[in-house]
Amino acid sequence: MNKLAEKVQQALVTAIDNDDLVLPTLPEVALKIRQAAEDPEISINHLSKVISRDTALSARLIKVVNSPLMRATQEVTDLHTAITRLGTNYSSNLAIGLVMEQIFHARSEVVELKMREVWRRSLEVAGVSYALCRSHSQLKPDQAALGGLVHQIGVLPILTYAEDHYELLSDPVSLNHVIESIHPLLGDKLLGGWDFPEMLAKLPGQYLNLERDSASLDYIDLVQVAVLYCHQGTDHPLANVAVSTLPAIKKLRVDPYSDALRAELDEARSMFY
Question: Where is the HDOD domain (predicted)?
Fold first, then answer.
């Protein structure tokens, strides 16, 4: 790591430790969806009303329900039917994840492009996590997708910081070093502050630990495998990982080189676009 990256990393860690770093808040619509979903007696009508206040989010949920991985014989054209198809818990988790896009906005074009890139990769990882979970585990696919959508959430405060520090913004190598080393710590802090469930709250800090071996398959395993799959064929160091040796793969009990699995996961990459 170069001197600028070290300096910025130290400044950010100090700011985190002293609670001086301003972290993004959960979007208001996500808070309202979560509040509604916490009611055990919630009706589909009520959740529909809450989600329908955000027309872009409503359209995304309908599109997801009609994606190849979920599509039934009849196309879904309205939000009420989409939520009926998915169920209230499922719908609320996916909606909370998808609405995160609202905080991926920047003042500068350089940071905006980087944020778009991070969000695009998060959507791909969410789709692959969903498919792996649905076909190869007893866990909940909506939680796996939510994990994929937020696994890089810690990148946001770093990019916001960079907008106010041109020295970092103009040095992409240093910026990438800082992102890679700090985003897991910030991600854990963000999800903890947003009261995410325990099974996801520590995901940003652990999904890159390739030696991690939990007692049983969990959402961190699923996101880890999805991240590695989505980096295949790129020039990123994660593309060179020997996937077949991972503890997460062994728990999933899949052949990572199977043509059938590759076809399924390739299709899943675009399900949340």
Answer: 23-210
- 8 A C-beta contact, residue 265 and residue 231: no
Residue 224 is predicted with a pLDDT of 97
- Which residues, given as ranges, of the chain have pLDDT below 70? 1
Domains of the chain: 3-22+103-268 (1.10.3210.10)
H helix runs in the chain, sequence order: 3-17, 28-37, 44-52, 55-65, 79-86, 88-98, 109-136, 141-150, 155-163, 166-169, 172-193, 198-201, 203-206, 219-231, 247-252, 259-268
Residues 161/170, Cβ–Cβ less than 8 Å: no
Count CB atoms within 10 A of the CB of residue 219.
24
- Token digits for 192? 């903890």
* DSSP label at residue 243: G
pLDDT value, residue 1 = 65
For residues 4 and 50, what is the distance between their CA atoms, to the nearest angstrom? 45
Tell me if the pTM is above 0.85: yes
Residue 27: DSSP 8-state:
P
**Is residue 110 classed as helix, strand or coil in its secondary structure?**
helix
**Which H/E stretch holds residue 58?**
helix 55-65
- Residue 202 burial by CB count (10 A; 0-12/13-18/19+): exposed, middle or buried? middle
Cβ neighbours of residue 88 closer than 8 Å, sequence gap 6 or more: 37, 42, 44, 47
Q: What angle separates helix 155-163 from helix 109-136, to the nearest 10 degrees?
A: 180
Task: Name the token pair of 63.
Answer: 């599109």
> What whole-number distance in Å separates Cα of residue 8 and Cα of residue 5?
5
Kindly state the tokens that stand for 85. Answer: 């198809």
